[in-house]
Write a structure and sequence with these properties.
By secondary structure, this protein is mainly α. It has one domain. It is built from three helices and two strands, in the order αββαα. A two-stranded antiparallel ribbon has the order 1-2. β1 and β2 form a beta hairpin. α2 crosses α3.
Length: about 80
């Protein structure tokens, strides 16, 4: 019979810490924390989501206005 290894015995007696999967932002690599924002199937952290929204707003202002129920008037 194989003797117990002291480190294994200590781990079994004290209990293993629960497994927690660290969720990382695919853009910056930092931990997502408690809240994330799903964009195109990926979960982004708040700073990356804020940057994405800013970029989207600058390239698609009419779509953002429509999503926020804001009327757009073309004065040309």
């Amino acid at each position: 019979m194989m003797e117990d290894h002291p480190d294994i015995r200590a781990a079994l007696e004290s209990g293993y810490p629960g497994y927690t999967r660290q969720r990382l932002c695919p853009c910056c690599g930092y931990d997502l924390g408690d809240k994330s924002f799903e964009v195109d199937g990926e979960n982004l952290c708040l700073p990356c989501f804020t940057e994405w929204v800013s970029d989207y707003l600058s390239t698609n202002p009419e779509e953002v206005a429509e999503a926020l129920c804001i009327d757009v008037h073309d004065e040309s």
